[in-house]
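Sequence in, structure out.
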Amino acid sequence: MNRRIVTLLAAVLPMVVFGALLAVVTVPFVSLGPGPTFDTLGTVDGKQVVDIQGTETHPTTGHLNMTTVSQRDGLTLGEALTLWLSGREQLMPRDLVYPPDKSREEVDRDNDDDFRASEQSAEYAALGYLRYPSAVTLADVHDPGPSAGALKRGDAVDAVNGEPVYTVEQFTKRLAATKPGEKVVIDYRRKNAAPGTARITLGENKDRANGFLGVSVLDAPWAPFTIEFNLANIGGPSAGLMFSLAVIDKLTTGELAGPKFIAGTGVIKSNGQVDPIGGITHKMIAAREAGATVFLVPTDNCYEARSDDVGLQLVKVDSLARAVDALKTLAAGGQPPSC
């Protein structure tokens, strides 16, 4: 064979093999980067992101955007190198994102559960801030179960067999005196509906000797109207803070955002505490690219947020009340606490 051809093949073959490896071989990494942002004061697919029905709401302007982190799995070697070289993406070992003892579906389901829990916490935190009184609130009604079809999630229980209950402790004590098969009368309040009474035959549960009502309850602020959060396919709990702020903005006079484009993130607890989240720098980039000028940062994320200056005013918050105060200070032209 001609020596030139041999030399050419020797030079080209490794490049062809390497190119094939880049296109075919997958790597055990997940790419994390800036994800989409959503204005909690706006609409998605024709629906209000935060939809409040059954009470007066007030006009809002500006933006209160929640932020997300995008994930790419099943990367080829070439894709991973391209994303890493872009400087916008972070490569994480796959086992840290999808633990080996869980399937992808289980992890996604856990993230969905966290998101739904964050919606509930956001509602309770906002109602608590607005001073709505606490009630024995149904966090869940098990279906199938004795109460399915008779009670609904969000109902407030006022009495059991005519005996008033004001706390979960009192509610639990009333049920502790019952037996499976016994009928109980539950007086309840329902959102956007008249108060009602349910007569329920208690079931059995192997974990207890007393009758089983088939509900999960908690002491939580209760309001007679509904709050729905209309975002799908957004996993994790970090939208809670921005959801709570949107609820407060819609239920109060004045405007928290005003003309400003504000974005942020933070896990919200039912008592209004704001906890840290992951991927803060990716979320800051997403917020800046969407047009935000101010970013609300959980206090415990401030060090990481300061490490990546993307041109945003970083406002630190550790509670819902302080977040509201910070936004009011901004609207008045003042300087809120910063990272």
